Request: fold
Amino acid sequence: MTETACVSGLELLVDYLEGLLPAPTVAAIEGHVAGCQRCQAFIASYNATPRIMREATDTPLPATVQTSLIDWLRKKRGT
Amino acid sequence: MTVVPTLEPSDEALASRAAAGDDHAFETIVRRYQARVYRLASRLTSETDAPDVLQDTFLQVHRHLPAFRGDSRFGTWLYRIATNAGLMHRRTRARRPAESLDAFLPTFDATGTHCGTPEQLRVVSEADERIDRQVLAGKARDGLARLPDLYREAFVLRDLEEIPTAEVAEVLGIEPAAVRQRVHRARLLLRGYLQDVIGGRS
Reply:
């Protein structure tokens, strides 16, 4: 993400978000993103992806599985 | 009246007792971790396969407890066993190859500018308002299943189970930089896939 190209920063994004980049690179990225609506939108959706996936795949342990697991392990251990 | 605080035994204390044959300590470990391992297993494999992976994991935990030396946190050790159990389960299943998500990687025009309008590019962050929850759940599982194993493991552990990068690196036996890169690729693929599902294909 130098002066103008969105593509330049793509592979730096994860390190940028984790605060691992040197200050000049951070300044270049932030300078570009501040003036680029597409990058702002892209980063918003990139950041939202883990939360969307986390909520959509959250699976509580069924009570039947919980009970049968303990029983099964007791049998396997011979207790 | 004096209130005596009750302290839960640490994982490591329970592991030590369980390794010495204390079944109650082992079952306390099972109860403490079973929901997390089940959720992890369902994300690494499927809801159908998760009960089998859960059983395999705790059976292996029981078998290998005497070898647990405390070099890593007990939770890290257990996640490593669960992740390997999930991977082995996937490999032993006769499955047709998952359709690649590569078509959903971001695209750029000749000047290096993102293809698509800001509205299209933003659509994933508006998923809650734009797509039915049940439909999204099905699509999300489909997307996870279509990730390459290396990316799925890293993404599930880091972004879905929210385990710190350094610990994920330990679980997977790779460098933290490699974890970040795999998680990044998974996020890019899933972000593009979700954009397509929600209706913002550019």
Remarks:
- The two ends of chain B are 68 Å apart (CA to CA).
- Chain B touches chain A through 60 residues (CB under 8 Å).
- The domain at 102-198 of chain B is CATH 1.10.10.10 (Arc Repressor Mutant, subunit A).
